[in-house]
Amino acid sequence: MRVTEIFFSIQGEGSRAGRPCVFVRFTGCDLRCGYCDTAYAFHGGVDMDRAAVLAEVARHPARFVCLTGGEPMLQRELPDLARDLVARGYEVAVETHGQRPLDALPAEAIRVVDVKTPGSGEVTTDFAYLDRLQPHDEVKFVVCSEDDFRWSREVVRRHALEGRVQVLFSPAWGQVAPRDLVRWMLESGLDARLSLQVHKVIWGPDVHGV
């Protein structure tokens, strides 16, 4: 497996924001979203086998692990690693763009799927995976404009995501003011959650490994 970094911090976004978490960031992504804040994970990294990753995770006290990237589902052994972690009693979240098959992941893993809006430059066109998500999974929309929000709102309603999975809206950093996104959410009446990147508020937008 190709790994960019493993670090211990707090989860910065989503419904579990603020929780201590061990992050395993894998190298490589097959998309190039305009708002990407982890482009440093596109290349480089080091090769680690599953045993080495598990040993590094075990050095930290958190029982919550986030497998992220890049795009973690590009790693052939990612489902096996997630299964190993679940078997060791960890709560496991996998942050993914959803355009790679997710069915091999253990049922216990939390799928945090970033649906790509038109403003990302990599708009999602295949939504089949949304119908297979479970109640503990999350769907995130990074909104770059009000048009992005309207597009996202239609996806949420077309696929009946409200009340079935956690729906998250996040303002693209530096492109949408959080107060504007809040207003759009309230006006829409959607049953969704605002997700701010609190790690950027704490440490700034350019710090890695936090």
From TrEMBL:
Substrate binds at residues 10-12, 25, 68. Its cofactor is S-adenosyl-L-methionine; Mg(2+); [4Fe-4S] cluster. It holds the Pfam family Radical_SAM. Its EC number is 4.3.99.3. It comes from the Bacteria. Residues 16-205 form the Radical SAM core domain. InterPro entries: 7-CO-7-deazaguanine_synth-like, Aldolase_TIM, rSAM, rSAM_sf. GO terms for biological process: tRNA queuosine(34) biosynthetic process. Pathway: Purine metabolism; 7-cyano-7-deazaguanine biosynthesis. It is an enzyme of class 4 (lyase). PROSITE patterns: RADICAL_SAM. [4Fe-4S] cluster binds at residues 29, 33, 36. One of its GO terms (molecular function) is magnesium ion binding. Mg(2+) binds at residue 38. CDD domains: Radical_SAM. Binds 1 S-adenosyl-L-methionine per subunit. It catalyses: 6-carboxy-5,6,7,8-tetrahydropterin + H(+) = 7-carboxy-7-carbaguanine + NH4(+). Keywords: 4Fe-4S, Iron, Iron-sulfur, Lyase, Magnesium, Metal-binding, Queuosine biosynthesis, S-adenosyl-L-methionine. Catalyzes the complex heterocyclic radical-mediated conversion of 6-carboxy-5,6,7,8-tetrahydropterin (CPH4) to 7-carboxy-7-deazaguanine (CDG), a step common to the biosynthetic pathways of all 7-deazapurine-containing compounds. Belongs to the radical SAM superfamily. 7-carboxy-7-deazaguanine synthase family. Homodimer. This is 7-carboxy-7-deazaguanine synthase. The gene is queE.
